[in-house]
Amino acid sequence: MSLPSVLNTFSVKSRDGENSDLSTPVKELIVQKYLSGEKYSVIARNLGLPRNTVYTVVKRYLERGSVETPSRYGRKRKLDDRDVRQLLRILLKCLKTAHHLSGQISSNKYTCISLALSVNNARYVCPSYKGIIGGGIGGTSAAYFLRELFGSKASIDLFEKKSIGGRLATVSIAGNEYEAGGSIIHPKNLYMVNFTDILGLKKRQDDDVEIISIFDGKKLLFTTSQYTVVTLSKLFWRYGMDIYNVKSWLQDKFMKNFSRIYKIQEEKYAYTTVTDLINAMDPTFVKYLKKSIRQLMKEDGFSDLFIDEMVMGGLRMNYGQTPDIHAFVGAVSMAGIEQGLWNVQGGNKRIPEKLVKKTDVNLIDGEVTLVRYLEDEESPYEVHYIPVKHGQEKPKPKKKQYDIVVIATPLHNDVSNIQFEDFPQDIENFPQKYHTTIATFVEGEPNLATYGLDKFEDLPDGIFTSNPDLFLNSFGKQKPVDDRKHLQSKPAQENFIVGKIFSNKAPDELEVQKYFPIRNDIRMIKWLAYPEYDFYTDELPPFVLHDRLYYINGIELAASAMEMSAIGAKNVALLAYNHWFGHYDKINEHYTEAGDKGSERFRKVQKGSERM
Ligand SMILES: CC(C)=CCC/C(C)=C/CC/C(C)=C/CSC[C@H](N)C(=O)O
After folding, report:
1. How many CB atoms sit inside 10 A of residue 555's CB?
2. 3 state DSSP class of 354
3. Mind listing the pLDDT tens digit for each residue in 189-222?
4. In this protein, which residues make up the domain named Prenylcysteine lyase (predicted)?
5. How many whole angstroms from 269 Cα to the centroid of ligand 1?
6. Taking burial as the number of CB atoms within 10 A of a residue's CB, which of 96, 100, 360, 403 is the most buried?
7. Is the beta carbon of 320 within 6 A of some atom in ligand 1?
């Protein structure tokens, strides 16, 4: 099955579509009954209709404010815009006095109805119980943003079956801890910068000039120098103007409008699909999903040599893949080889660990197996889990009910095996393949001959590879996550280093010998690290799986990075907040900043996405 069709099965689509075969009075009767408090199942039974049909009619009504299917040729509205605005003003006044409603109201044609629905639907108290499934950077960021939005009274449970941090982890070798998973943060990754600040953590940034080479499997094609002027001359000699153009190209084509997301989210706008969120940053980004980074850069005049060496090198290091992956993740990878990258003193996993404490969540050590929808219950999501085994006894399965549930783990069979039951539509596991990346840490003496070198001093700090057939994706000399010198162990022998080999397959003894013939210790970590970006589609997964059941990790299909997970988490927290308090004018809506030219190009991407 191709990806678009697979993703369609994942979207929230009602089985009986538009119900265009029901007459308008019947649809109106359904809505009337719903508004007077009758449950879907009761309405369905009394009217002799399938429950799904009733659900869909109500859902469409909540989205559109009308039971009619919108049509250019349909019946005209009886009220004109002026009437609607006037009605709105009156309604708003009544509502604000009567219910202290704080929602903002715009004058779009459905506002009148959604506002009326707010009277029935808006909840004036915070949801009591929220469950987050997954304790990685996505889940813990979601906890933080939910706490920020819903306040200290909301009770938040966070389920994690292993350890907090997920794919942010350290490995212990030669007496020190090293970054083993997501390892780098860009200076413009505002959420990571803010978390580090708020949580009282410190940045770890190398002041030493790092020497980087590109290796084709036989020799080092290119090596930077510790003198910037020499490096620039060498780069210019090899890549010409490409090396000067790439920085401003990345800034103009990507970084500038990517940064719009921070303002958009500060203004509490949220999007129901990953595509809609990307589109809100810049509609051109949606086009990047449908072409390769190679194609985009070639269209913009970059040479094959530059793409095959620099871009390839960055992509093999960051995602173990090639410039044939889509241009959005390609651009993120390019940002990941810019200057000024940093990580957290003590390890990046300290961010999620400290977020858990800061947000005062209730941590549940357990593996979630099932989420069941209990339609008639006040807290309709029943989460089933198996507590982590601590003693000898086999733990008994348990369950808890929630108002809101956030899934913060890839819904992918190799990673999680959560079942969904009794939902009006199918919620299936994430069909996209995840890429296996092996990080092998070795304490030993590197094999200089492999790189065509003679002297130990000439071994670069980092090696990118330009050959897609090579076993080695990248190599890097490692520094401990705690760079306070007095805490670090000394290497076991002269010319011993701790090096990290990234590869797509586990190395056998011969392969390890090739890079480290003499060694003291070796540790190998297998990650299902990020999606296999072998698709071009602008139909990325939804953030909303059901009314108040949200999913963060679909954002990884756009690009996987710590910051992307935090952006996804903030979007989901804002969706939960806007849905709960009836701020529908902040969902899937265009955000315009005064004088913001970029957003004038905004177009709606409602294909396959639904306003919940
Ligand atoms: C915030 C702006 C303006 C742009 C940044 C876009 C972005 C999300 C950059 C992340 C850069 C980065 C750290 C890329 C590395 S790829 C992920 C890698 N596998 C890792 O996490 O270690």
Report:
1. 25
2. helix
3. 999 999 999 999 999 987 789 999 999 999 999 9
4. 222-589
5. 22
6. 403
7. no
